[in-house]
């Protein structure tokens, strides 16, 4: 049997282990950082490919107040780079997978059929989900098997996404294509005059690198022990994809568009900007209480944001580029909007969007500390690698708790089950009203306090870094709601 990364961690230990000659892993060279993979394939010029919009999944049936979907994971050959075929692992054989549009409070059942050669796990990122359907990383769906995931969706309208969550292998399996968007709608949101229909666009942003023949680059897919450990800081691709297309272009009218931005990259954070104003209306957990105008927007892996751009501010024939201020060269480009027509627009962004209940940290039953750090050959939470059988916390159902998260280097931290609100960042309170999040970026040597309330479901869940290579190298902790 080929050793897994967790086997390597157990064999080598997690103390002061220096890996001489391994790029990015020597403790003498400091903490491992994300590494850029250079493509060998011919790359298209930016904005030469039209933006694809993933198909909307249709229920195979609806009965008893529930909608039933079927997602079949299979390998497929698709055109990502023009003129080349790339083998992906996709839901329905597409990359990204189909967009599921669901209704708050209406049960959604997704049957996952695994036609791949490896086990998988499905996680609805941002879903308020019973433990048996949350995608615990050891709840594997074997090749040839299937499993039903039940999502009651007792939660607000929000931009969610779904992806693979297999222990030790989330990074390579998401890199290969196992990701898609999941939109929850409700009456409150639909009563607002926000852009809708074709002007309500899911944009799944990720980075990849490619071999000369179009194959996706990811070191260590052949399973040799120690290969992927060399890239434990995280992997960066040199091609920015939006909805599976490299640096695409979208032709737009001089009207408002709602862009549902999702950072589905393994390790890359984005500083998104257009050179003009963007109106942010939502974050991970749904609508903000009121809109805010931003000039740039940072998204760490796993984070989402909904923004409205009013293209009536631009001239016909003008081109508006969505840039990544955190990248250089081609990685500083994301996509482009070409303003090419006039159309009627009855949408608007009201001054009030929603009611966001503030959680009172004074009612917290307990404050817990979670330290995210490098352990030499793996990543640790509170000095320990992930153990599915060890519960790092046991919050009680209905309780409010404050969790204090401390980092060594940047870690986007994702909490399963319930959304949270950020209380302080390095001791300072965020400006503005509270907002609901499920992922928060810890920057280098930073402490972030969050407050959450555990509701509806007892059982085991996880807290982890959403740099997928960090997650796969043991930066995860299990907790049980009792």
From TrEMBL:
Plastocyanin-like domain mapped to chain residues: 77-188, 253-312, 374-481
Cited InterPro entries: Cu-oxidase-like_N, Cu-oxidase_2nd, Cu-oxidase_C, Cu-oxidase_fam, Cu_oxidase_Cu_BS, Cupredoxin, TAT_signal
Coiled-coil boundaries: none
Database matches in CDD domains: CuRO_2_BOD_CotA_like
Keywords: Metal-binding, Oxidoreductase
Gene3D superfamilies: Cupredoxins - blue copper proteins
The enzyme's E.C. designation: 1.16.3.4
Reactions catalysed: 4 Cu(+) + O2 + 4 H(+) = 4 Cu(2+) + 2 H2O
Pfam families assigned to the protein according to its UniProt record, in alphabetical order: Cu-oxidase, Cu-oxidase_2, Cu-oxidase_3
Subunit (UniProt): Monomer.
Protein family per UniProt: Belongs to the multicopper oxidase family.
Protein name as catalogued: Multicopper oxidase CueO
């Amino acid at each position: 049997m080929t050793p897994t990364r967790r086997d390597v961690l157990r064999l080598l230990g997690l103390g002061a282990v220096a890996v001489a000659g391994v790029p990015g892993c020597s403790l003498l060279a400091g903490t491992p950082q994300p590494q850029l993979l250079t493509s060998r394939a011919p790359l298209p010029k930016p904005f030469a490919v039209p933006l694809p919009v993933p198909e909307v999944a249709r229920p195979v049936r609806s009965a008893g107040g529930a909608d039933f979907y079927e997602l079949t994971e299979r390998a497929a050959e698709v055109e990502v780079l023009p003129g080349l075929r790339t083998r992906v692992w996709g839901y329905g054989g597409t990359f990204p997978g189909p967009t599921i549009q669901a209704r708050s409070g209406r049960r959604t059942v997704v049957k996952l059929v695994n036609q791949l050669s490896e086990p998988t796990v499905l996680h609805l990122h941002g879903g308020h989900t019973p433990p048996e359907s949350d995608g615990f990383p050891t709840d594997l769906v074997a090749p040839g098997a299937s499993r039903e995931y039940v999502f009651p969706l007792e939660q607000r309208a929000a931009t969610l996404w779904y992806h693979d969550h297999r222990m030790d292998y989330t990074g390579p399996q998401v890199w290969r294509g196992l990701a898609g968007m999941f939109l929850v709608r409700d009456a409150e949101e639909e009563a607002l005059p926000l852009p809708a229909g074709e002007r309500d666009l899911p944009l799944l942003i990720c980075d990849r690198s490619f071999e000369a023949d179009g194959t996706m680059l990811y070191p260590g897919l052949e399973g040799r022990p120690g290969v992927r450990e060399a890239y434990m800081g995280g992997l960066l691709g040199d091609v920015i994809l939006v909805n599976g297309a490299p640096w695409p272009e979208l032709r737009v009218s001089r009207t408002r568009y709602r862009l549902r931005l999702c950072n589905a990259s393994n390790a890359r954070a984005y500083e998104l900007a257009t050179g003009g104003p963007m109106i942010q209306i939502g974050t991970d957990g749904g609508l903000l209480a009121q809109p805010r105008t931003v000039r740039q927007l940072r998204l760490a892996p796993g984070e989402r944001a909904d923004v409205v751009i009013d293209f009536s501010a631009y001239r016909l024939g003008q081109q508006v580029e969505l840039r990544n201020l955190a990248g250089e060269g081609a990685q500083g480009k994301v996509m482009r909007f070409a303003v090419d027509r006039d159309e009627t627009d009855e949408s608007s962004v009201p001054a009030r969007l929603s009611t966001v209940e503030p959680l009172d940290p004074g009612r917290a039953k307990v404050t817990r500390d979670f330290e995210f750090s490098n352990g030499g050959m793996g990543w640790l939470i509170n000095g320990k690698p992930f153990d599915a059988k060890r519960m790092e916390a046991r919050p009680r159902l209905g309780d409010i708790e404050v969790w204090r998260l401390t980092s060594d280097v940047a870690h986007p931290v994702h909490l399963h089950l319930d959304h949270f609100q950020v209380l302080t960042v390095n001791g300072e309170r965020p400006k503005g009203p509270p907002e609901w999040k499920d992922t928060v970026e810890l920057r280098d040597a930073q402490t972030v306090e969050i407050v959450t309330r555990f509701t509806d479901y007892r059982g085991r869940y996880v807290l982890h870094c959403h740099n997928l290579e960090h997650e796969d190298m043991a930066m995860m902790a299990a907790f049980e709601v009792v």
